Amino acid sequence: xxxxxxxxxxxxxxxxxxxxxxxxxxxxxxxxxxxxxxxxxxxxxxxxxxxxxxxxxxxxxxxxxxxxxxxxxxxxxxxxxxxxxxxxxxxxxxxxxxxxxxxxxxxxxxxxxxxxxxxxxxxxxxxxxxxxxxxxxxxxxxxxxxxxxxxxxxxxxxxxxxxxxxxxxxxxxxxxxxxxxxxxxxxxxxxxxxxxxxxxxxxxxxxxxxxxxxxxxxxxxxxxxxxxxxxxxxxxxxxxxxxxxxxxxxxxxxxxxxxxxxxxxxxxxxxxxxxxxxxxxxxxxxxxxxxxxxxxxxxxxxxxxxxxxxxxxxxxxxxxxxxxxxxxxxxxxxxxxxxxxxxxxxxxxxxxxxxxxxxxxxxxxxxxxxxxxxxxxxxxxxxxxxxxxxxxxxxxxxxxxxxxxxxxxxxxxxxxxxxxxxxxxxxxxxxxxxxxxxxxxxxxxxxxxxxxxxxxxxxxxxxxxxxxxxxxxxxxxxxxxxxxxxxxxxxxxxxxxxxxxxxxxxxxxxxxxxxxxxxxxxxxxxxxxxxxxxxxxxxxxxxxxxxxxxxxxxxxxxxxxxxxxxxxxxxxxxxxxxxxxxxxxxxxxxxxxxxxxxxxxxxxxxxxxxxxxxxxxxxxxxxxx
Length: 625
Known about the structure:
Layout lengths: L4 H7 L1 H5 L16 H5 L2 H9 L3 H4 L28 E3 L5 H7 L11 H4 L1 H19 L8 H26 L22 H15 L19 H16 L19 E2 L6 H23 L16 E2 L10 E10 L4 H4 L20 E3 L1 H6 L9 E4 L5 E3 L17 H5 E2 L4 E2 L2 E2 L4 E2 L22 E2 L15 E9 H16 L12 H9 L17 H15 L6 H7 L3 H4 L3 E9 L11 E9 L13 H6 L5 E2 L3
Parallel strand pairs: 2-16, 11-14
Antiparallel strand pairs: 1-5, 3-13, 4-13, 6-7, 8-12, 9-10, 14-15
Helix pairs in contact: 8-9, 9-10, 9-11, 10-11, 11-12, 11-16, 12-16, 16-17, 16-18
């Protein structure tokens, strides 16, 4: 970590931002001439390392991170665009740009997700193409170094193209750097064509990528064999998903079909084969576990997958590819960029009152009971929960005997935190009197919950403790659930369709029981119903990956945004019958609607940025925009 690539990269961010503002910018370097860069091995390495800036930041607001991190949409987590969280700041973040359905590349904060990925990805792709074109001509560069740089560039090109196609569908696919004299009026390529080219790049990168065990600690954050295989599996999983295989009907009337870009739907046989290929790709990653290259973190080290105070723990076998933040304390820009939670002086809002993102009751209701039973099966017309009394669940004790991940993810009223109980309550007969976490208005929690998952208890305002953060793109838990999903779609829950002894149920139950080491079968899901299995799998993904930017895409790729996101989100109001409650006080919990959300069918695919459509007559817009 002492010479981590991130510290080199971050020194160059301010220079690089000016070089990537425009789509397909022609500038090769703001630091050196071409001869200086491409004839000197040391400078060429810096040019390669600059690719990593695009993993961290889009070409825009310095505080908005492109992938990973919790503060990239107006200082709010992108999870706030889903049903699992609510941004507390009414004038910014996902509240202003996504939740009301007023998407526009010009909406405040929305450009971070709607337009900057286009510009940033193509800027990164151009740099990858230049590396591949120039690397063999660099004097004094060893063959092994050259091959390593090629693999990094191929992996990065695949990564950024995947980030493009998961948002926009098929895009122009460039495998060479363009000059000013070349035709840039480029059409979009079909989604499946883009997928095939991404897979080709990843396969080509594999021979010269290191295994994780052979990668030096200072290089953690660069791609490995496991990272490339994981990206391949994810690309194929998304390619098999309904958004990319079924007809894309948006209900916009009789508009001219020539104005819109749609894919040709797959046949059922083609779709099943895609699921099989996705399962095979996930299994290729799983085979690395037998070689000791990856593993699930055990229950004692589950939290340390995301953050750790010990530098030696930053590199862990569950993390396959991530962005690392160096050691830092509570104060400063890192907190402003999205740390969410509260300090030891009661600041339950985002750092400095800027913003925050808080768990919804919708998320809480997804957690099963400790034994795996389902306490809430749905909702009545008025939004009240349909409760299964056989599970022992009651609303007034809703956090008792639940899946242990609930208390690892969410801070609830009276939970012990930083040597004191969390006070998220109002005095019932005089609501102007409240607990220490409810002293203010919009920048305090609106849902009745605080976020815990990405916040180390050691970090407190004015404290000296520091942590290392892992913002994870792929972890081994994800791979096992990809495998479970693809196997179930292809063969059902219990059929060993690949002949490797590992069924969809086997993979899912490993994750469901990972925090129950003393009873490894306690929460097994036993069913032969393919659809029921899928529903529980998606529920598992929602609670396992909350705040990791997975829920939005899991819903989107199944074309369920207008069902899941076009509904209200809920929170709770907690009342105390006395002015100064203690942990033994009985509190009254009342459900309440926080916000009516808006999501329309055509939003399953993002609009191509309007500026790009205006530049090219061949670049067709997605339907509905």
